[in-house]
Amino acid sequence: MKKIFAIFLLSLSLNSQAQFGTNLFSKDPIINLENWDKQRVHWGYFLGFNAYDFKFDYKQPGKEIQVKGTTGFNVGLIGNLRLHEYIDLRFEPGLYYTQRDLLFPGFESESDALRQVKSTYIHFPLLLKFSSMRTGNIRPFLVGGVSTSLNLGSNSKSKEDNLNDRFRMKQWTNNYELGFGVDLYLEYFKFSPSIRGIFGLDDELIRDNDPNSPWTSNVGSMKTRGVFVNFTFQ
């Protein structure tokens, strides 16, 4: 999937190279999609990558849990409502695939120490987009808001825990998000690369059944952190 996505982006880049050079960055560009932003409502979709992490807080100081993140994949839809010339309200539901490997201290066996946390999130962000004045075919923007995520791989209903090699998380979590990007107005559509950080507000860890569990007993809270790189087409 990542290879297909990379080939798709490369093809888009090659096909649009002349347009980027002449229409986006030239001194006197041809104005594309001049009335696009005057629409009250418009739709789009996005593809992208993510890098999820966890932020751990501990009850007692000691050796910390190591988190190794991997690069995941995002895909979703966009609904945009124009509130003002420079402000838009956006709803961007999407599907996010990711994996985080947790290495717990104090174990001699790697099978006991390592937990692979595979997550498939259905992500529901509600965002405000603050755009600058358009210059030619370029318009930078800031974006921020709140989101709710449903983790389909949480294992929240399982009665087994880390003693049975089962890492459990809460199914729902709330977050806030901040990011920036740029709208590039091409001849037939608007292309918007952006980068956004996500910060979990809730403790997502479900503790083991044993209150003295070597995996979870010293964890005060476990909250999601992450970075999204999205490529939007509208």
TrEMBL record:
UniProt-listed InterPro entries: Beta-barrel_OMP_2
The record's keywords, sorted A to Z, are:
Signal
Please, which domain of life does this record's source organism belong to? Bacteria
Domain (Outer membrane protein beta-barrel): give its ranges.
Answer: 39-204
Q: Point out the signal peptide segment.
A: 1-18
Q: Name one Pfam family in it.
A: OMP_b-brl_2
- What is the protein's name according to its record? Outer membrane protein with beta-barrel domain
- Organism of provenance: Flavobacterium lindanitolerans
